[in-house]
Automatic annotation (TrEMBL):
Domain Methyltransferase type residue range list: 50-140
Name of the protein described by the UniProt record: Methyltransferase domain-containing protein
Domain of life: Bacteria
PANTHER family (UniProt xref): 2-METHOXY-6-POLYPRENYL-1,4-BENZOQUINOL METHYLASE, MITOCHONDRIAL, METHYLTRANSFERASE
Record Pfam families: Methyltransf_11
Naturally occurring in which organism (per UniProt): Solirubrobacter deserti
Transmembrane parts of this sequence: none
Length: 271
């Protein structure tokens, strides 16, 4: 694997995602998302596929199972190592910044990202890179949390406790809005599919177990709560997260918790 310089914003971002246990979180309830994106793209055997911000290979692995030649890139090497440990498939695992991909122009038939590239802080830079490395006539496929869905609401809940964002950074869930995607890609991608779907989550007995998992395993929540602790506001943060879980729980009283996390699934052709 290549390496990312261990300083500045990118190093902090990589360290955030390495904190907690994101691989375990994926296995808890996020696993279905990668195959859904791969199915929507209809990846073919022999296709050259790049999975950007691939994490533990949630989309990379099912793409490779279809016979594609897959490169999985991510800013956080610990996540790639966890992904490589999940499979014996011949996937190339490359540590790389989504805003400055180390690949030649038009290197791939398919460039995709499942709840990954949306977390690169500078959206236009990341979108430009996705287009650059996709061949003309190739496919761009994205699955991103919706800004008005549960994950978008979670980030709004946590925002008052977070440190100031870096200059030029945009909110990750914006990628889940059709208008934002069209603005980022302009006429460089002809979108064939933009559809809103939901991931149903039924693995938690109690609603607040959802928040407890995020506090224990999810890098952004861990980082923001740490800032709340520094400011002496951890009790306030915990109470806000509990209230969020109660609000979004769709189960009837006495039933196990049930949540729906909305996302936008988009596929298009590079012009």
């Amino acid at each position: 694997m290549t390496t990312i310089p261990s300083s500045g914003l990118k190093a902090k971002h990589a360290a955030m995602w390495a904190s907690g246990d994101y691989p375990g979180m994926v296995e808890t309830f996020l696993t279905p998302l990668g195959p859904r994106l791969v199915d929507a793209i209809a990846i073919q055997p022999g296709a050259r596929v790049l999975d950007v911000a691939a994490g533990t290979g949630n989309a990379s692995i099912p793409a490779a199972e279809r016979g594609a030649h897959v490169t999985a890139s991510d800013l956080t090497p610990e996540l790639l190592a966890a992904g490589a440990a999940r499979t014996d498939l011949p996937i190339e695992w490359v540590t790389a910044d989504a805003e400055a991909l180390p690949f030649e122009d038009e290197s791939f038939d398919v460039v995709m990202s499942a709840i990954g590239v949306m977390f690169a802080p500078h959206h236009q830079d990341a979108a430009d890179e996705l287009v650059r490395v996709t061949r003309v006539g190739g496919t761009v496929g994205l699955l991103s949390w919706a800004p008005d869905g549960m994950l978008g609401a979670l980030f709004r809940t946590m925002a008052p406790y977070a440190p100031p964002p870096p200059p030029g950074a945009s909110a990750p869930p914006l990628w889940g809005g059709e208008g934002h995607l069209r603005k980022l890609f302009g006429d460089r991608v002809e979108w064939k599919t933009m559809r809103r779907e939901v991931l149903e989550i039924t693995c938690f007995e109690q609603a607040r177990d959802y928040g407890a998992l995020f506090k224990a395993r999810y890098g952004p929540t861990i980082s923001i709560r740490a800032n709340a602790v520094r400011e002496g506001r951890e009790a306030e943060f915990d109470a806000a997260l509990d209230a969020f879980c109660d609000e979004w729980n769709l189960a009837e009283p006495g039933e196990p918790a049930r949540f729906e996390m909305a996302y936008l699934l988009s596929t298009g052709t590079r012009g």
